[in-house]
Amino acid sequence: MAGARFYDGLHPTAHAVTLRASSAEVVALLADGRIVARWPVPEIEVVSDPWHEPHALMVCPRQPGARLAVEDLAYREALAVLGANMSRAAPRRSRVTPVLGALVAALVVTVGGLALLVEKAPDVVAPYVPHAMERRIGAAVVTAMQGDAEVCEKPDGVAALQRLVDRFQVASGYQQKVTVKIFDMYDTTMVGGRERKRRVINAFAAPGGYMVVMSGLIEHADGPEELAGVMAHEMGHIVHRHSVKALLRAYGFGLITKLLVGGFSSDVGTVTDAGGLLLALRHSREAEREADRTALELLDATGMRADGLARFFGRLLDEQGGKDGAQQMGVFSTHPPTKERIEATTRPATGAPAMTAREWQALRAVCD
Amino acid sequence: MSDASPATAALPPAWSATPAPPAPKPPVQVAYDGKLGELYVIYLRSLLLTLLTLGWYRFWGRTSVRRYLWSHFSAFGDRFEYRGLGLELFLGFLLAVGALLVFEGIVVGLVWWAWGDELPAEIGMTDIMTWALLLVGLPLLPVAQYAGWRYRLTRTAWRGIRTGLKGSSWTYGGKAIGWGLLNAMCMNLLTPMRDVSLNGYRTRHMTFGNLNFGFAGRAADIYGRFIGFYFLNIAAWVVLFIVVAIVIGGVSSSVGSLSFEQMMERLANPTPMVLLVFFLVLFGFYTLVGLMILPVRCWWMAYSLRYMVSRAWFDRLQFVTGVSTRQIWGFLVLNYLILIFTLGLGGPWVMHRTARLISQQLWIYGEIDPAAVAQALGGDTGVGEGLLDVFDVGSV
């Protein structure tokens, strides 16, 4: 005998009823003894969720829509043993504190494991990304980068640069063809209230073995050794598939934080995005160091003069008046401090030239 | 009124013998008896499973949380019931994703048919697809919202009688977009009209059994207070800017020796001291906004909410909330801060606070007439709130 509430499923009335249950049937009686429900146990279904709801809700197809609600814990236990279909009547709530502790521990382990996976897996997975896919992404990146810049296509110059890069590619053991593209790109800066337009000094490695060289780099390089140093550095990015690793890492980090913070608020997303960006920048600086190291190895392997890279960095630093932009940007910088890179890459001026004088002349004129 | 007593005396005996009408029953409150710890167990468990399944468990997890919340709310001694299924949410999500894929396929097909290979290389197909999605997605948001409410209401029951939401989510979406555009063009001066219109549509289409809820709000009733809020809000911003200007002026004269670049360099290579100063400045700014702008906004929102609730009715029931400016501040601002500072892990705490606020501040006057309300037939919407999930809004 226990108190329960009966809903007839037709009107919003609650009848306080007393239950009489046996293994054959459950009977609900009003206070005046009238029977409002007489349900055979095998036909009863418990529709409530014993983990999340504080009552057992029973229904029976003999009275469609009608419900019997029981809250008394002991009585719910008693109902549960009446039949297999009644087992959900029993409460299945666990004690909060130990379960919370276990859940928090499991979450810490899971999040830690996933974070480690996102951190380490790209290094393992990146070489197995199909080259065709990498190539497609790379082509899109290069197109986006090009913007409205002209492509420099003088055959002699392009061939000279391609020969240089091909030597690095062979020495590096990278299995795929490396495609070099030269963009004639300008940026404008305000100098003393006057706009000054100058060529962009930069080079990029995109996924799929694309290497983009801005015309300003060729113009600005003091001799083929400096250019060769930078090309070897970009080849380092390609060999280590840094761009694919960065993409995989960004995707993984985004997935985890999205799962963790859910759809609560886009501002929470902004906070985690900022965290992801800082993390990506840290990886980016590490990738630059790795590319610098590989550049020196490639220059050594091809027997070229290896002093160009440090010299190039040194001149960049001098032109900024000794102000180290990367140092100033600190944790927000994509590159390590230039001074640190110079120290790490300084080499003696010995070895074979990177290209012949004729090749260098052709390359210098590639955008004319 | 000296002639009142003879009039009373002149009443026929039968009239005066009628028993006094029963004293009106005191209003009842909606009760919530959930516990924060239990809610956290449910939430963290589903978070763990969501992580382990890379997101696929979330539909079932969300359903568990709803079952817990709904069934711990009660009115007149009877608990609410949530009978939605995780599977429904999952199928709804798949349907919505499928529909979007078909839509994007059509877009790509049309673009290809119109331009073919002549599409300029700078315009990527992915850009076109993203823009198409945004163009369609933003107007669809209120439509999805209404469909989501309908899903949740059709899965909700009290005393064995289902609730529901009639009306068309497309009509609602159209109204929401139309009012949004019109209001933006009128510098937000139409806000009361928009709110009353949208809220009225929602409320009037809500059903319990076979009866609709009613809504008797009129924008004119709240316009006076809104205009007050409107100009107070502007004044608060002006004062805020003056205060910020004075503070910045004072600070810059004391750290005038630091150039902008030097400051940036210190920020980029943070020492604990720099971090402390940075966070103090940030905190100061937010405190100013919190003290000057948000109270004005909360004052208006509390007033608007009290009005909207009090103008809703069902059968012989009337609803009242006495929610105060401070409570709305706690609801909006504190909940927001909790979510930000816990990176979302404060979610259950926020749900718990919200549930408690409802139980403290929702009063029901009158009694339901069981004979007047009957179970409605049909009214089921099949699968879940797919579009809503695709656009990633709403967590409960």
Uncertain runs of chain A are none
**Low-confidence parts of chain B:** 1-9, 392-396
How many DSSP H or I helices of chain A?
Answer: 12
Biggest sheet architecture of chain B? 7 strands, antiparallel
Strand order of the largest sheet of chain B: 2-3-4-5-6-7-8
Tell me the total number of β-strands of chain A. Answer: 13
Number of domains of chain A: 2
Report Rg of chain A: 35 Å
Gap between N and C termini of chain B: 59 Å
Helix and strand pattern of chain A: EEEEEEEHHHEHEEEEEHHHHHHHH
Side by side, the strands of the main sheet of chain A go: 4-3-2-1-7-6-5
- Taken as a percent bin, the fraction of beta residues of chain B is 5-15%
Shape of chain A: rod-shaped
What does this structure look like?
The complex is a heterodimer of chains A (368) and B (396). Helix content of chain A is 50%, strand content 17%. By secondary structure, chain A is of the alpha+beta class. Chain A folds into 2 domains: 2-89, Roll (PH-domain like), CATH 2.30.29; 120-364, no CATH class. In chain A, α6 (224-239) packs across α9 (308-319). Chain B has 396 residues and is of the alpha+beta class. Chain B has a domain at 222-292. In chain B, 64% of the residues lie in helices and 9% in strands. Chain B is globular. The model of chain B is unreliable at 1-9 and 392-396 (pLDDT under 50). The chains are: A alpha+beta (368), B alpha+beta (396). At the A-B interface, α2, α3, α7, α8 and α10 of A face α3, α4, β4, α10 and α13 of B.
